[in-house]
């Protein structure tokens, strides 16, 4: 099978990430004032009618974290693995509530997710064999502890921005952007930390 170009994989990761990260943020932001193309933003209120409001909040936070793993492209493999049970949960909710059309959209998003997973197929044989394998895992760029912490700080700002949105929407969006920039800078942090370590 011919390998999909790197820029296309990055594009799929960002698209999937933005889809779910934005959906989660829109559910939790004050008056749902966050940009996203997939909904419904009122899912928590709808599930609360069935005594499942907390489950709706859980789904929203899962969407934010899993989507953020993908939109920042740092943890594409982890995000795409976690995406499978999340989409499964959302699919069961939509089927249970008899929503039309949503399962088709989710099927398309799941297909994109499988395209991402195929690019990391060399990781799965060691998991299946529980580490005892003769299969080679393709070398990826080195990640550092400092880079992980920088990325995590960006994610923390996303969560903090939800509370800020109840007081000042512009400030909340500013915090979101700062968090995204910080998480994208984690790649640069890895490079700089690696250079210092080699000296």
UniProtKB/TrEMBL annotation:
TM region(s), chain numbering: 7-30, 50-70, 77-97, 103-120, 146-163, 169-187
The UniProt record lists the keyword Transmembrane helix: yes
Keyword Transmembrane helix: yes
Keywords: Membrane, Transmembrane, Transmembrane helix
The name this protein goes by in its record: DoxX protein
Source organism of this protein record: Algoriphagus halophilus
């Amino acid at each position: 099978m011919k390998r999909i170009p790197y820029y296309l994989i990055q594009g799929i990761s960002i698209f999937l990430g933005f889809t779910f990260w934005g959906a989660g943020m829109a559910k939790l932001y004050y008056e749902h004032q966050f940009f996203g193309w997939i909904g419904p933003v009122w899912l928590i209120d709808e599930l609360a009618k069935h005594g499942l409001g907390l489950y709706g909040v859980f789904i929203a936070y899962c969407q934010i974290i899993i989507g953020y793993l993908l939109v920042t492209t740092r943890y594409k493999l982890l995000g795409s693995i976690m995406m499978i049970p999340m989409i499964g949960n959302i699919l069961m909710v939509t089927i249970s509530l008899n929503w039309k059309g949503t399962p088709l959209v989710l099927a398309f998003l799941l297909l994109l997710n499988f395209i991402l997973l195929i690019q990391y197929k060399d990781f799965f044989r060691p998991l299946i064999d529980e580490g005892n394998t003769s299969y080679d895992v393709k070398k990826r760029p080195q990640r550092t502890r400092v880079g992980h912490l920088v990325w995590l700080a960006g994610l923390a700002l996303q969560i903090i921005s939800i509370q800020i949105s109840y007081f000042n929407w512009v400030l909340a969006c500013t915090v979101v952007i700062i968090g995204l920039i910080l998480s994208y800078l984690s790649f640069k942090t890895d490079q700089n930390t690696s250079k210092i370590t080699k000296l």
